[in-house]
Amino acid sequence: MSRPAASLGLMRMIEAVPDRLDGSPRQLRRFWSDEFKATAVEQACQPGVNMSAVARQIGILPSQLYRWRRELLGSDEPGRLHPRRDQEG
User: Fold this and answer.
1) What is the DSSP letter of 74?
2) pLDDT of 57-79, one tens digit each?
3) What burial class does residue 78 get, using C-beta atoms within 10 Å of its C-beta: 0-12 exposed, 13-18 middle, 19+ buried?
4) Which of 41, 48, 49 is CA-nearest to residue 66?
């Protein structure tokens, strides 16, 4: 029969360090212009275009492109290309 790993002396305690390690790369947020977002959404909303493929081509996650579409169009409907109008009054 096999023995537990602890009895073989294979287990060691490690300490988790919550701070960033020296020399590790710091990831900065990327900022996209409104014009870039509008162009990406317009391209992705064309008939027969795969939104995930467009997102990969421009180097973002598909969820980001879907969010931009929701923010710009006020809808999750891919065929609706009219900008969202804020309600007045």
Assistant:
1) S
2) 999 999 999 999 999 988 666 55
3) middle
4) 41
